[in-house]
Amino acid sequence: MKKKYCLLTNDVETTSIWLNTLRDETGWTVYKEGMPMLLDIYEKFGVKSTFYFTGYIARMIPDIVKMIQNRGHEIASHGLLHTKEHGFDVMPYDKQVEHLAETKKILEDISGEEVISFRAPALRVNEFTGKALLETGHRIDSSVASQRFDLFMSFGGLKKLNWLVAPRMPYKTKEDNIFKRGESSLIEVPLSATLLPYLGTTMRTFPLITNLQKRLISAESSLNGKPVVFDIHPNEFIDESTLPRSIEKRSNNPVAYFLQDYLRSNLKTKNLGPAARPLYEKQIKHFKDRGFELITIQDYCRKTGLL
Q1: I need a labelling partner for 165 at 20 to 30 A (CA). Which of 113, 156, 238, 307 fits?
Q2: Quick one: 5-303 is in which CATH superfamily?
Q3: d(CA 139, CA 19)
Q4: Lowest mean pLDDT segment, chosen from 146-160, 170-184, 281-295
Q5: Quick one: pLDDT band at residue 132, thresholds 50, 70, 90?
């Protein structure tokens, strides 16, 4: 029987899901409420996880990095900023190198540990991202969601069509195209998907669908050893619903606004806060009960000889 791995990963930023915008106050609430709840869940199930921090939140709250380091989790990069205009699919090579190097330095200065793993904000990448990652000393990427179909529900949707033909198993990428196998030393560990993404938003919005997904994905792993890669955010465990709500308009295109801001932001608010905890624990218990090893992405790459 093939060894089975479940890689639970977390993107840490200042995004307010309720308000559909970035705000420092949400970052502090994540630090005080969301992260402690998430870490308690992982301790309960004996999980070691990977946390992707934006440089912005790490610089603002260095202790948010130290609190996961003290629990033995992996510190990874989520880029410097989570703003639309700083997506890695629109930044040129030099700007990507600048953002990656600055974030790496912030995280390494706080932790004293080398940071080699990366995930792009909103999973937005372009042809320069692989080379920029290698130039800045990153070895592992997890920005590809193989066979996930976003339509136009997220920014960078056209480039994300590459996900439909990306390999499902972890692979070494081409330097100029991380969606394809190649000869570079950059390792891609794709996020799990079954057309719909397997992540916290789907889990909270469509829990019945996610329960079916976990069975399909775990069956696949039992057959071919593909690691389960789940993505969640500590801001999904905070409740800001007492705040007056207006949806920020991030696009002047009315169709894009309706799909990417209005509809998406309303769907994403379902089961926020403490209601997310039992849903997530149910996912983890499924894999724990079936003998999956729940480890960091870096440890997975080392154990399987990719790194």
Answers
A1: 307
A2: Glycoside hydrolase/deacetylase (3.20.20.370)
A3: 34
A4: 146-160
A5: very high
Token pair 């007056």: residue: 244
Angle between helices 35-45 and 276-289 (to 10 degrees): 20
Q: What is the pLDDT, as a whole number, of residue 84?
A: 87
* Encoded tokens for 228: 């389960």
Mean pLDDT within 106-135 = 97
Query: What tokens appear for 279 in the block?
Result: 């849903």
Torsion of CA 212, 44, 140, 156, to 10 degrees: 50
Contact 82, 121 (CB under 8 A): yes
Q: Identify whether the C-beta of residue 86 lies closer than 8 Å to the C-beta of residue 79.
A: yes
Q: What are phi and psi of 149, to 5 degrees?
A: -120, 110
Name the residue ranges covered by the structural domains of the chain: 5-303
- What's the pLDDT score for residue 250? 59
In this model, does residue 48 exceed pLDDT 60?
Answer: yes
Q: Which amino acid is at 78?
A: H
